[in-house]
Amino acid sequence: ALKGVTQLMRNNPKISISLEGHADERGTREYNLALGQRRSESVANYLMANGIKRDRLIAKSYGEERPLSLGSNNLAWSQNRRVEIK
User: Which pLDDT tens digit goes with each residue over 24-46?
Assistant: First the structure.
């Protein structure tokens, strides 16, 4: 998926994107915000390593605040641990 984003950004040099890190419900709010930030920064680092300038990337975290799945099980947790690219 990130190869496709990299190519899209190379082909459209005026596009900037937001990288939104998320976490599951386990852990404290502070921990999950930091974890979501590390996730979004990890994606930003990949894109920069592949030639995308940092000023085109906004990395932020929502922690556990915007779950994709409301369950409290392994499937829900795995769906909530993610980075959304917008």
Answer: 999 999 999 999 999 999 999 99
Q: Residue 61 — φ and ψ, nearest 5°?
A: -130, 140
Between the CA atoms of 60, 62, 64 and 69, what dihedral angle is there, to the nearest 10 degrees? -100
What is the pTM for the complete model shown?
Answer: 0.93
- State CA 72 to chain mean position distance: 21
Q: Return the sign of the alpha-carbon dihedral for residues 64, 70, 75, 80.
A: negative
Tell me how far apart the alpha carbons of residues 37 and 76 are, in angstroms, rounded to a whole number: 20
The token pair at 53 is: 């300038």
| Number of alpha helices (DSSP H) and beta strands (DSSP E) in the chain | 3, 3
